[in-house]
Amino acid sequence: MSKLITVFGATGNQGGSVIRTILNDQKLCKEFRVRGVTRDVNKPTAKALAEQGVEIVQGDLLNPQDVATAVKGADTVFLVTNFWEYFSSDPEIQQGKIVADACKEAGVKHLIFSSLIDASKTTNGRLVNITHFDGKAEVERYIRSLGIPATFVMLGVFMSELFTLIQKGEDGSFTLALPVSTKAPTPLIDASKDTGNFVRAALVNPPKEGSNTIHASAGYYTPEQIGVDFEAATGKQLAVVSVPGEVFKSFLGASMPPHLVLEVYENLLLLEEEGYYAGADLSPSLNALSEKPVTLKEFFTQHKEKW
Questions:
Q1: What is the residue extent of each domain of the chain?
Q2: pTM above 0.90?
Q3: Any coiled-coil ranges, and where (predicted)?
């Protein structure tokens, strides 16, 4: 009999990618039956998954009873929490701990969590406002403390963020202005496509005990390389410039509250010194994949119409 995998955030970027990957993989679709958890079972994306044979259940990650029901009978659980829904790590941490407790109680054999590094600790207190990193790191520590076999999948910067970061001027020119060096290594991922690609590697090689970490990125790209790939894919030039921090924060301040301005600003500063992954080599994670991830040039080519 096939094993059950519960996927939280089934209709979102990451959870949806995980489900699509399992359904389209000849081996995994036989090994696992999928239960997708979403707050709104009536949304079109949820109904579409149900039509593909996914068991869709309603669930609020802040409701322990909902979560217990969602993981009941599951061999494996994929968990993604969403800082950007609340703009606060407190609910995110609470969600993560509720799910971890439920997994421990239900005897889940493998918990896959979309995690990130502890930026405050990694930078020795230099950058203390990257709370969407630190909150996930706290959940990761809690999962480890429970002794649940786990894989921590750390996604890089979403390539889709470049839709916002690359600005088109009134004269039709394009600019990428960042508060870091144009040589700062930036790990990038097409999250809607490749979250599932990296999670498949976790499903194929689950930890027998303890935990594994996967650095889920297609590669490290400098802003300079982003400019090169943009031009190669679109035929349009991209001016890549390093701007003072206060100038960059003023750009963000027009559309964000102050604490989120600091969140995004410090997140970018992390790239330049300690590093998004604290200097981790991507090779082991990339070598574990059964298919190559989407490159940045391919991503730009696929989304030419955006520019």
A1: 3-156+190-217+278-290
A2: yes
A3: none
